[in-house]
Amino acid sequence: MKNRWLFFLQLGFTLLVCAFLIVPVILSILAGLTVNYLVGLESGLTLRWVMEVWNGYRSTIFLSIGISLACLALTLVIGIPAAYVLAKRQTALTRAIEELLVMPVAVPGLATALALIVSYGGLPGFRTSWLFILVGHVLFTLPFMVRSVLAVLSAIDLQTLEEGAASLGATFWQRFFHVVLPNCRTGILAGSLMVVTLSMGEFNMTWLLHTPLTKTLPVGLADAYASLRLEIGSAYTLVFFLMIMPLLLALQAFAKPRTPKFVAEETE
Amino acid sequence: MRDDTRRLILLLLPAGIFFAAFFLLPMVQLFFIGGSGNTGWAAYAAILTNANYFSSLVATLGVAAATTVATLLISGISGVFLQRHKFPGNAALVAMLTFPLAFPGVVIGFMIIMLAGRQGLIGQISEAITGDKVVFAYSMAGLFLGYVYFSVPRTILTVMAAAEKLDPKLEEAARSLGASPWRVVLDVIIPGLKPAFISAGAICFATAVGAFGTAFTLATRINVLPMVIYTEFTLSANIAMAAALSFVLGAVTWIVLAVARTAAGSTVAAAG
User: Fold this and answer.
1) Contacts of B270 in chain A (CB under 8 A)
2) How many domains does chain B have?
3) Domains, chain A
4) What pTM value is reported for the model?
5) Domain assignment of residue B75, yes or no
6) Which of A219, B28, B87, B107 is found 20 to 30 A from B79 (Cα to Cα)?
């Protein structure tokens, strides 16, 4: 009997936590579609705020998509080879390199952004270009790509696979492209999702790295929250949700801890 | 084999060059600029000697510690519960709890405004009941709530993954020997989850110390270090001080994560 009571207590608590996380999301979606949020839903539903966001902040959406894709391309090109080397040679040196690569995630984005500004802020063409933001995003997301690919490479028997291919006459590059890469597909996919999602939402660095002409989506969001009415901020957030929803769902599928296929039903 | 090594170096080179040019060198430069202000290298001690900076350091560490404790408590209870009890709707609850996994700090700040801001739900409810509008989004309490919001989804995932590996036989043994549910939690479950708690807790702490977006959305006058650095840099144009403070902030978060990694014996990295 006591167990049953405990079960419902914990269930109630968990439901409360769920409400804490989900209720504001629902409120914000509603606010973005309501004529006047203070009056409530009686004031009617409208797409007016979403249209205002589209007209005023369209460019931030495209810039964010562009930067996240460029970021993905760069992290793929420099991250996968790095992960391969780290998997292949596990020495104190490669461990130290891995440690260093993860630093931009451990160090606050504000510090990284300031460091970039004091070092490269003087280059006029670079400072005002979207490439400046891209550099920051690549620094921040690279560890996720490397980690993700490295995890898969460490789990498979790379040595045997490569030796097998080599004994059949495959050169180093043939092995890399036809044996190693196909084998770390899942890691590359998971890492890519992570990179795009993180780049899309990065704010800590971007707020310092951006210029009035290079506003990304989160920068635009901060702008809207600070200066425009609640409904527009909400509509903008709604647009952001719609953009990252597919990414989030895919990420969730990856992140979900694996549960056994057959689980005993709750019996009390 | 020599050839192989040369090729491996070649493969590591692009990431290495990018990283050295855009992270290592800039960080070294930031370090020197931190010591180039009117106060010289004393800028690095200012975080302890200057009363204003010191009070924001204390506030920052305080809110980060509170966030860590609250997040571990919430995620520990709900994570173990959801891992242990498979009931209809369990998967839906897990999906909801991890849904905000990749929300950026600014959006989380806005979520807290929707909850506890001037037009927020809590204010409306409290006004209807007591006639008093409760608004606390734009304060340290709001920031704390925002950091908990940010940290719960990722911590729950870590706890669930760790709870899955716990051996239920240990708990059954404890119970059959007459241990009360509390004793089982204290003596069996918590020790078993300790590595997960340490690594997830360190990530919570480090992100709460270094995060900027949530505080920025809630209010510019919240006195935490990232906001102070931002103000020094933009409003006061005191680049040397901003550099010194952010270098110290970076060192603090990095050390927290490094210590946690040695303690937990697994890989720990902050996010977001």
Assistant:
1) 105-106
2) 2
3) 23-253 (1.10.3720.10)
4) 0.86
5) yes
6) B107
Q: Name the minimum distance, in Å, from the CA of A257 to any CA of chain B.
A: 5
Residue of B nearest to A207 (CA): B213
Tell me the backbone φ, ψ of residue B244, rounded to 5 degrees.
-60, -45
Q: Which domain holds residue B11?
A: 1-34
Q: Token pair of A127, please?
A: 């400072």
If asked whether residues B144 and B237 sit together in one domain, one would say yes
Contact B152 A78 (CB under 8 A): no
My answer on whether B129 and B219 are in the same domain is: yes
A71 in Cβ contact with A137 (< 8 Å):
yes
Let me know: does B17 contact B218? Beta carbons within 8 Å: no
Q: Which of B244, B214, B219 is nearest to B229 (CA)?
A: B244
Q: Are residues B105 and B173 in the same domain?
A: yes
Contact list, B11 vs chain A (CB under 8 Å):
81-82, 84-85, 176
A17-28 pLDDT tens trace = 999 999 999 999
Same domain, B133 and B212: yes
Q: What was the ipTM of the complex prediction?
A: 0.86
| Most confidently predicted of A185-194, B67-76, B164-173, B181-190 | B67-76
Whether B269 is in a domain gets the answer: no
Specify whether the backbone of B69 is left (phi greater than 0), alpha (psi in -120 to 50) or beta.
alpha
Residue B96 sits in a domain of what CATH number? 1.10.3720.10
CA distance A33 to B249: 40
How far is the alpha carbon of B66 from chain A, nearest alpha carbon, in Å? 17
